[in-house]
Amino acid sequence: MCLAVPGKIVSIDRSNPDSPMASVQFGATTRDISIQWLADVKVGEYILAHVGTALSKVDEEDALFTLNALREMGEIE
Amino acid sequence: MNAKSTYHLSCPIPKTEYEHILMAHGGGGKLTRQLIEKMFYSGLGNPILEKGHDGAFLPSIKGEIAFTTDSFVVDPVFFPGGDIGDLAVNGTVNDLLCCGAEPLYISLAFILEEGLLMENLWKIVCSIKKAADAAGVKIVTGDTKVVERGKGDGIYINTTGIGRILPEQNISPENSCEGDVVIINGHIGNHGIAIMSARKGLKLNTHVKSDTQSLSGMMMDLFNKVPGIHVLRDPTRGGLASSLNEIAQSSKSGITLYESSLPINEGVRGACEIMGFDPLYIANEGKMVVILPQESAQKALAIMRSHKEGTESRIIGKVTSSHPGILQMETTIGTHRIVDMISGEQLPRIC
Amino acid sequence: MKHIDEYRDRELVEKLARKIGKEVTRNWNIMEVCGGQTHAIMKYNLLQLLPPEISLIHGPGCPVCVTPIEMIDHAIALARLDRVILTSFGDMLRVPGSISDLLTEKARGGDIRMVYSPLDAVELAASNSEYEVIFFAVGFETTAPAVALAIQQAKKRNLNNFSVLVSHVLVPPAIEALLSSADHRIDAFLAAGHVCAIMGTHEYLPIAEKHRLPIVITGFEPVDILMGIFHAIEMLEQGRFGIKNSYSRIVKPEGNQKAQDLLKEVFVEEEREWRGIGPIPLSGYILSDGYSNFDAVKRYKLKKGIAADYGSCMAGLVLTGRKRPSECINFGTTCIPERPMGAPMVSSEGACAAYYKYHRSSANLQ
């Protein structure tokens, strides 16, 4: 339903208060993405981008926790 | 501005009285003559071209001849990694190489749009010259027409190419058979993504450059040292998936691609993820798919890797009898799926 | 690419597949609502990894597929007007209406431009003041906020030459409609993670409780999808129902509050026709009174039309999970991606197109 891609914030431009934008890196390609709804994002953080807007932050701690849990998950129960 | 000044050092523009192409440059009169002499002869000159006949007189060629034609329309005309000039030469040369031929001669027919900057035409002529020299081919005949402003994208180029088929090779898409391996000489998708990012619409910022290059050096070396190549194909429009589908269909054999072996650079990957494109369908302009028996694979790889066009060469698949006519992919997670011909062009997806 | 590659890991995928195999004891039908998930399932052929007891049913979550023919006909009518630039997402341009599609209209001379973002359409309006720029807005709750933002920006910038043909649809009413039909065979849902990134999870709890089934909020990569299936199977086997968030690195229970506020400001819900399914109450958005100036339907006085898909098309049965694409008599014969007869064949996320592209003769591939 909705193609949304995680990307890393490389710079933030809040010069227009009505339209805060971030340059977001996907692989080695960047694009400007609106961060209208994510007031507190910082450079270096990952956001999920969809049609030019950042939908949410990627929760790094949660991601790590889930992956570790999956990796350590026992197979015999 | 920088590009312009370095350009002038290596390739000074001949003095013409006009800054732009006028309708009269295609009219067949004095201005046409001037354009041919000052631009094309001085940029591309060789004794065959400069004879100025209605056609080129070529010395006799021993054996079978490969003959190809192609048209080049690209927007923008100048793009990261090249321009329509080297694209036209490299594309024609690589088509001849796919036939197992040594590229020899090229014709160029220009369709110029009224108002094209003379300086831009000269840049294109210079990159044609550079590409032709690199590939070891001569531009032997040509034509120029001018269309009214608004009726062309600055410049279109149509080419033909002539090459000498090497008798020791017998290359045809029908030849692929079980046990063959599929090799490619480097990263896929670069040309298509470079062009898309150079256009204004998608606002992608990437360092991806077109891979436009002649594969003459690498392929001639391969032809000389590795007999028994079965299939060659340059995966241009429609990308790798379309080329391999065509080969699978015409040889009635199956091809399996290994997704984890596909060379895709991070710029292309990122652009494809955002837009929802599949890099398998994105155009290349300096790639060659080489299909040959397993036992020749290591030798072929070593030769290809010794050339700058092929440092990233690797095996990306195999030919099998198990699913005739079908291209399948072994995915990164170990499952198998069909890779179909593309229907229509790839459009950015929202979903 | 970080946060993508980890979830395409072969070892984790195989481990999850084995876990699913061990957990399952009987037949279950799980519907992935979202076309993006259908696409990923086909692209990675996850079906190959699942035990035969599990059937995945492909839901109606392909926004371009369910966009009503009437709206496409509206877009075509607008594109035929003088001094109009019609913009939309790339995959919308191919979808046929009753008489034509937007790519054909472009070939006929319409000024139709594909944009990546609705915000780009606003920029286009700003730099082409002598033209009317219309954005044809499709998509679910994930996409609607970006469109709302575009409209809000156009209003702030007094761009009177910008308007929107709104055809947004909403997921929960569609799920409710699917479950309300007596003959549905859905045991659990994988809910669309990216919709929930905006809307949160609360809308799904009442549905799960009312119909006593698991709804698992699921991501889009192979590991995510298998994790969603695993959690669904776990709940089904234990006889549990309710919601489970399997995509917690992206989805928070409250969702994106600011985007939700913007949706409430710019849009109101109303009944909407879903192509292949029919009208569903309160399942679409129209512009609220404060923004109705930007409504292309009003600005151009578009008349309500009627249009239907081809008679023998089983789109409705496919979109509601009653038939598999390959069970339709037209599939792969008279109906192919180049000449689609119905909604699910038109976009690569549509179940029929995804089947056709990746899975057509999977028997050969085993």
Main traits of this protein?
heterotrimer; A: 77 residues; alpha+beta; SH3 type barrels; five-stranded antiparallel β-sheet; 1 helix; 17% helix; elongated; C: 366 residues; alpha/beta; Rossmann fold; five-stranded parallel β-sheet; four-stranded parallel β-sheet; globular
Assigned CATH superfamily of the domain at 68-168 and 256-299 in chain C = HypD, alpha/beta domain 2
Biggest sheet architecture of chain C = 5 strands, parallel
Instruction: Give the tally of structural domains of chain A.
Output: 1
Rg of chain C is 21 Å
CATH architecture label of the domain at 68-168 and 256-299 in chain C: 3-Layer(aba) Sandwich
Low-confidence stretches of chain C: 362-366
CATH class (first level) name of chain A: Mainly Beta
Assign the CATH architecture of chain A. Roll
**Total number of beta strands of chain A:** 5
- Derived structural class of chain A: alpha+beta
**Within the largest sheet of chain C, what's the order of strands?**
2-1-7-8-9
For the largest beta sheet of chain A, what order do the strands appear in spatially?
3-2-1-4-5
Q: Give the mean pLDDT of chain C.
A: 92
> How many helical stretches of chain A?
1
Nearest-angstrom radius of gyration of chain A? 15 Å
Helix content estimate of chain A: 10-25%
What class do helices, strands and sheet pairing of chain C give? alpha/beta
Here the CATH topology of chain A equals: SH3 type barrels
Estimate what percentage of residues of chain A fall within beta strands: 35-45%
Secondary structure elements and pairings:
The complex is a heterotrimer of chains A (77), B (351) and C (366).
Chain A: E1 5-13, E2 21-26, E3 29-34, E4 46-50, E5 53-57, H1 60-72
Antiparallel strand pairs in A: 1-2, 1-4, 2-3, 4-5
Chain B: H1 2-10, H2 30-44, H3 47-50, E1 65-72, E2 78-79, E3 82-83, H4 84-98, E4 101-113, H5 118-135, E5 138-147, E6 155-165, E7 180-184, H6 190-198, E8 205-206, H7 216-225, E9 231-233, H8 239-251, E10 254-258, H9 266-275, E11 289-293, H10 297-305, E12 314-320, E13 327-330, E14 336-338
Parallel strand pairs in B: 4-5, 10-13
Antiparallel strand pairs in B: 1-6, 2-3, 4-6, 7-11, 7-12, 9-11, 10-12, 13-14
Helix pairs in contact in B: 2-5, 4-5
Chain C: H1 10-23, E1 28-34, H2 35-43, E2 54-61, H3 63-66, H4 69-79, E3 84-88, H5 102-107, E4 111-114, H6 118-127, E5 132-139, H7 144-156, E6 162-168, H8 171-180, E7 188-192, H9 193-199, H10 204-211, E8 214-218, H11 222-237, E9 242-245, H12 257-266, E10 267-274, E11 278-287, H13 296-299, H14 315-319, H15 343-346, H16 351-359
Parallel strand pairs in C: 1-2, 1-7, 3-4, 3-5, 5-6, 7-8, 8-9
Antiparallel strand pairs in C: 10-11
Helix pairs in contact in C: 1-11, 2-16, 6-7, 7-12
